């Protein structure tokens, strides 16, 4: 989660693929937006973020979640105001690893980054369970494990993947792949980056969920959502917004195994890694009235 600031003279990657107009402070620090809302008595010290499979997103300040959500506790990191959690088990298809590690839930990171030995277990196990030919090394694609699709191929299969959080709750990954349109056709990749010393659960592993950051109870909650039909949001006293009159059909709540590449691929091959874009619908009317 980023500290609050605004972009002015943007250069480099900010001019290629994405150009934010500013960053919203959502971390555990005292100057973040949720801390300010709670300190001024405008709402609970909690918020949620939803990442839809169609690229739509929603942020709700004051959202404490619901009784149906699954939860895990944040790991206390006094020196860093971050949302750190513990993962005790990884499932990739029928393969299970008891590796325990900590990771940061960070909506400001587009793609998940994991260090060894966890990265090697996930990637090699994934690789052993797909049928397409491994794509040759490509400096224009940031992911290591990519696969070529045939000219007439309309879908591809990948193994179910889920994380077991500390406390025993399961967190299924609904969007672990990314599709690229190259000169030779479609290529799909395990959208996981190898890190040297830090583990970050990025936006792509949050897709298909409403993620609740309950800072009062210091818990992370999650519930399957398409970001349109969250009619049971607990956001009092902050006024909820209305869902769009027309919304796409609800995505599957279990991990998608068959994927249409044309639905995921960009219209043309781009040498730059495009960041996940998210249309934020801010339910924040009470706070806006004072700024």
Automatic annotation (TrEMBL):
One MF annotation (Gene Ontology) recorded for this entry: aspartic-type endopeptidase activity
Region (Disordered) residue spans: 238-269
InterPro entries: Aspartic_peptidase_A1 (IPR001461), Aspartic_peptidase_AS (IPR001969), PEPTIDASE_A1 (IPR033121), Peptidase_aspartic_dom_sf (IPR021109), TAXi_C (IPR032799)
Domain of life according to the entry: Eukaryota
GO BP term (any one): proteolysis
Name under which the protein is recorded: Peptidase A1 domain-containing protein
Source organism per UniProt: Castanea mollissima
Start-end of Low complexity biased regions: 238-255
């Amino acid at each position: 989660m980023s500290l609050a600031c605004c972009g002015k003279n943007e250069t480099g990657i900010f001019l290629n693929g994405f150009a934010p107009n500013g960053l919203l402070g959502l971390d555990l620090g005292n100057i973040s937006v949720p801390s300010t809302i709670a300190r001024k008595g405008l709402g609970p010290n909690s918020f949620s973020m939803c990442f839809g499979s169609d690229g739509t997103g929603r942020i709700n300040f004051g959202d404490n979640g619901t009784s149906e959500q699954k939860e895990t506790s944040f790991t206390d990191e006094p020196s860093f105001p971050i949302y750190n959690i513990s993962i005790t088990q990884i499932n990739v298809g029928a393969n299970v690893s008891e590796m325990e590690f900590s990771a940061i839930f960070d909506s400001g990171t587009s793609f998940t980054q994991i260090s060894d030995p966890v990265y090697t277990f996930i990637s090699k196990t994934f690789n052993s369970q797909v049928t397409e030919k491994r794509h040759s090394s490509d400096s224009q694609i940031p992911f290591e494990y990519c696969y070529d699709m045939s000219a007439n191929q309309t879908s591809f299969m990948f193994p179910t993947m889920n994380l077991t959080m500390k406390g025993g709750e399961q967190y299924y990954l609904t969007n672990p792949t990314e599709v690229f349109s190259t000169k030779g056709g479609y290529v799909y990749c395990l959208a996981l980056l190898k890190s040297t010393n830090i583990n970050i659960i990025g936006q792509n592993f949050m897709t298909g969920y409403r993620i609740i950051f309950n800072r009062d109870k210091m818990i992370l909650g999650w519930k399957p959502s398409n970001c349109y039909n969250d009619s049971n949001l607990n956001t009092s006293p902050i006024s909820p917004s209305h869902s769009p009159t027309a919304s796409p059909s609800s995505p599957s709540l279990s991990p998608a195994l068959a994927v249409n590449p044309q639905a995921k691929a960009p219209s043309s091959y781009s040498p730059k890694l495009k960041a996940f874009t998210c249309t934020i619908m801010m339910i924040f009317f009470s706070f806006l009235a004072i700024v």
